[in-house]
Amino acid sequence: MMAFAALIRREFIEHRGAFLIGPLILVAVLFGATILAFTVGRIDVRFSGAIFTVAPLRFYEFGFLAFGVAWMLYLLAVLFFYCADGFAADKRNNSMLFWKSMPVSDFRMLLSKLAAALTILPGTVYAIALLSGLLFFAVAFTTMSINGTASFAMLGSVASIYLQVAGAILLALIVGLLWYLPYIGLVGALATALGRWAIPVSLLLPSLVATLEWVTLGGLHPFTTRTWNYLSYRSTFPLSENGYPDVWLATGERFDLNAFAVDLLGKTDWLQVLIGAVFALVALYIASEYRRRASAN
């Protein structure tokens, strides 16, 4: 167990730029740009404060959720490039020879990379999302104070909203990682065999498989095949259409974490999640066998 934890820590050390430094820089740039915009007069402080006054809690809910969605999109992008690069990094810089001398199997080595992708990076992004929510409220409260419309009575309501939205972001993050796990495992497995060529191959592979089905089994075009329809389904987050967020936006009610959780967990196909997890593990096992045999030759 200690050896596995050391492997995960090693992944963090080798990729701390994507895991930690990158998100912190983005937050600093965003916050700095906001402060600069107010300082040089690009944004009217009184007008902004008036906007927050109209529906401050609703505006804060929407803004915090928007930050959460943006950070999850960032997470998906970084996960893709991390898996396409990190799973082959030790082979590229010859550190595989050192790790091959350790009593750790190739499969366990790849599992540590997958564990780092599912824990360290999402945990960092989630913490940054929480920080973004706090900074967003600080800016909003400051502009309202300058406008003379702020009150400390609203802090309790904001704290409740913060916890509700933070819980929703965490739940969506966990479900999203489980839902997209087969893609993460596949890209990592391809990177183990192909190195950085895994980036274009993983992007083209769905189209190639759909085209192969279209050529062999027929159909109107490759994008109407069963393969393409299934991949489209597995690429769509469970609440992307007709979910609680749509109802919340339409009704104007306060965001409800319980309703969001019930809707998300109920619309998630857990059988597909299980199949995806098995697929990811099988793909990594095959990649580990290739890695073991390739390094032995």
Categorize the overall geometry: globular
What's the count of strands?
A: 0
Largest sheet: none
Structural class: mainly alpha
Question: How many separate domains?
Answer: 1
Percent strand = under 5%
Radius of gyration: 23 Å
Low-confidence stretches: 41-54
Please tell me the overall pLDDT: 79
| Terminal-residue CA separation | 30 Å
H and E string = HHHHHHHHHHHHHH
Question: How helix-rich are the residues, as a percent range?
Answer: over 70%
Helical segment tally?
A: 14
Tell me what the structure shows.
The protein is an all-alpha fold. It has one domain. 82% of the residues lie in helices and 0% in strands. The protein contains 14 helices and no strands. It has helices at residues 2-14, 16-39, 45-54, 56-86, 89-92, 96-100, 106-147, 155-179, 181-194, 198-217, 226-235, 244-251, 257-267, 270-296. It is globular and about 70 Å long.
Top keywords for this entry?
globular, mainly alpha, 297 residues
Write the layout of secondary structure elements.
Blueprint: H1 2-14, H2 16-39, H3 45-54, H4 56-86, H5 89-92, H6 96-100, H7 106-147, H8 155-179, H9 181-194, H10 198-217, H11 226-235, H12 244-251, H13 257-267, H14 270-296
Helix pairs in contact: 1-7, 2-7, 3-4, 3-7, 4-7, 4-8, 4-9, 7-8, 7-14, 8-13, 9-10, 9-14, 10-11
